[in-house]
Structures are given as structure tokens and as C-alpha cells.
Amino acid sequence: MVLILLASLLMPYACGQRSDLRAAMAAAGNGNFGPASRLKLTTADVPELAGYLRDKEEAVRREALVLLAGIGGAPACEALAPALTDASADIRERASRALHKCPAGVRGIEEPLRQSIRMGNTAAASLLLLGQFRDQANVEFLKQQLNNKQPVKLEDWSQPVPSGLAAAVAAVSAGVEGARRRLTDGLGPLNEAEFLVSVLPDISDRGALPGLLNLLDDERAVALGVPSGAMPQRRVCDLAVDAFVARLGLKAPFPLNAGGRYSGEERKQVRQMAARAGF
Questions:
Q1: What's the rounded Cα separation, in Å, for the pair 262 and 254?
Q2: Residue 240 is part of which domain span?
Q3: Which among 36, 54, 48 is positioned nearest to 76, based on CA atoms?
């Protein structure tokens, strides 16, 4: 009796929520995204939202993707898979980046990711996500990508890097022989070094990390980490301190400063701690 009463009380709310969602998506199709931004969505809304990923209007499909990404969690993340092969390049890239922010282990995305890359997806996330899969089909696909020079970006504002470098990050995690060498080659060009610092969390093969510790000595200035125009600029080595401390779970004996610079002595301490941790 209590459950029946509860259901009867919630039904008007659920119906109203569906009505609001439909009205918001109709507005999005006309270029008005305000109603969608005011929705209070939950996992219960995922099935209906997922249906909008097949809408004929690109603006509606894009808004559905944004809303699903905002809900988060396994059901919403899994629902994003069809967007990886959308006719719109922008939606394909947005889907890859949204999935890259999801917890590892999202089901049903491996083949859509490969198809998305074949379609020309220029989001590095589409390749990075493939590092989660070690089956032979994926290993062979990543091997084929290692020498690909098509530019990809981690984020829209990031410096482009060859897709072969992003493929190498995934390939190392997937156990592809020879991929580590491509990572250490990436320590040379500034854009590639900056990329590698940013994707340390994607390298699940801890054995590949010692070869990247030289990033702690790279004093070239980067645009990341401080507001535009702020001085002094951070350097690759400063980003590397933050990245290695987080990736290796180190307890730094000095205060971390996500917007500042680290001294040579502090960087040396991080290298020593990494060595004591077996790296």
C-alpha cells in the first residue's frame, strides 16, 4: 500500500519531468538552449535522452550529448556510444572527450571508438580510451596508428600532436610491443612533452613511467596552468611535478602549487621519491 501511494505521488513529477525535457529539446532544435540548461536530470532520464542522439537535428543531438555527460555515471556514459559515430565531426569529438571523463570500464564503446577514428575523429581522447582494451583486434588497430601523423588535440584549446603519440599512450597500456619508444620520442617537441604530462593518468603501464621522468628536467615554458598572460609562465617540469606526484601517489615534502613554479631541489626530490617507489 505504501509503495502504491508513493508511486501515485511521484507519477505527476515524472510526467512533468518528461514534458519539460521534451519542451527543452524542442527549444534546442530552434537554437534556444536556456530551457535545457535549467533541467534537473537524473539517471532515470537517460533512456529518453539517449533517444535524442538519433534526432535529425544536429543541435538536438549535441544538446542530448551535453546533458548525458552532465548526468554522468555508467548508464549515461554507456548511452554516449552512438554519438561516437555521429555524422557530425563536432559531436564525435565531444562524445570522445565526454567519455574520457567517465570512469574506466564503460561498456560497448570499443568498436565505436575505432570506427570514430576511421571517420577522422581528431579528439585525442578517442585514441586514449582504447588503452583500456587488450584484445587482439584492438592491439592490431593501435599498431597501425603508431605512425599516423594526423593532428589530434586533447582539448579544443590544446596544442595539436600527431595522433601516433596518442595511439602510443593507449598502446603502452594495451601491451603493444614497441610503444614505449614512441613515448620517449615525444619528450623532444614541446607540444608533445606538454601532451605527455597531461595524459600521465592514461598510462596504466607503470613500467612506462620511468622513461618519462626526464620531463622533470624540462624547463621550457608552456601556456598551461596559469591565466592567459600571467607571469611567470609555468614550465613542463612544473606540470610534471604535479602530474607525477598525483600519478604515483607520492607525498611531496613541500607544498604543491598548481599555479606556480618548483625549484630544482623540489624537482630532484620528486625524482628521488619516484626512485624509492620503484621507478
A1: 10
A2: 209-279
A3: 48
pLDDT the model gives residue 230: 62
Q: Is 215 exposed, middle or buried (0-12, 13-18, 19+ CB in 10 A)?
A: buried
**Residue 43 placed within a domain:** yes
On whether both 143 and 196 belong to a single domain, the answer is yes
Whole-angstrom distance, CA of residue 32 vs CA of residue 30: 6
Residue 244 in any domain: the answer is: yes
61-81, pLDDT tens digit by residue? 999 999 999 999 999 999 999
Is the pTM above the cut of 0.85?
yes
pLDDT tens column, 170-217? 999 999 988 999 999 889 999 999 999 999 999 999 899 999 999 999
Q: How many domains does the chain have?
A: 3
Please give the grid coordinates belonging to residue 130: 582504447
149 DSSP 8-state letter: -
- Measured CA to CA, the distance from residue 232 to residue 278 in angstroms comes to 33
Distance from the Cα of residue 279 to its chain's centroid:
25
Amino acid at 269: Q
Pair (134, 57) in one structural domain:
no
- What is the pLDDT confidence band of residue 2, given thresholds at 50, 70 and 90? very low
The CA-based angle 48-155-42, given to 5 degrees, is: 25
**H or E segment and range at residue 2:** helix 2-29
For cell 613541500, the residue is 254
Pick the last residue of a domain from 203, 237, 270. 203
Q: How confident is the model at residue 10 (pLDDT cuts 50, 70, 90)?
A: very low
**Alpha-carbon distances of 122 from 93, 94, 96, 110, 130, rounded to whole Å:** 7, 10, 10, 17, 14
> In this structure, what are the phi and psi dihedrals at residue 200, rounded to the nearest 5 degrees?
-50, -40
Put residue 73 in one of left, alpha, beta given phi > 0 → left and psi -120 to 50 → alpha: left
| Domain membership flag for residue 10 | no
